[in-house]
Design a protein that fits this description.
With about 100 residues, this protein is of the alpha+beta class. It contains one helix and seven strands, in the order βββββββα.
Length: about 100
């Protein structure tokens, strides 16, 4: 039984405003230690096997999953804001601001 052909998956990760997202974690769901992160322009390149689930994760954004089925050179991933997490962070900083502002 031979090894499956490695696929090359590359592209860019953007937010909902089409701004590139540097530092996004890009990794294979069920294969520990296989991953990368996007560069300053939001670009990534990853090797996978057919059927691997690729996860895109960045704080303040909802995770996105993509199944590797073929070589892809210009994959465009859009991450959406995680409004719930944003509200928690906003609330935390507001409470902190009120605590440190009181005489």
């Amino acid at each position: 039984m031979g090894q499956e052909k490695k696929l090359t998956i590359s592209g860019h990760v953007f937010d909902e405003n089409n701004e590139s997202l540097p530092g996004v974690s890009v990794y294979l769901k069920d294969r520990a230690g296989v991953g990368t992160s996007t560069d300053v322009d939001g670009a990534f390149k990853l090797s996978a096997q057919k059927g691997d689930m690729i996860i895109f994760s960045f704080i303040g954004y909802k995770k996105k999953e993509h199944i590797a089925l073929k070589d892809e050179k210009d994959l465009k991933i859009i991450l959406k804001n995680d409004v719930f997490l944003f509200r928690i962070i906003k609330h935390f900083y507001l409470v902190q601001l009120l605590i440190f502002s009181c005489p």
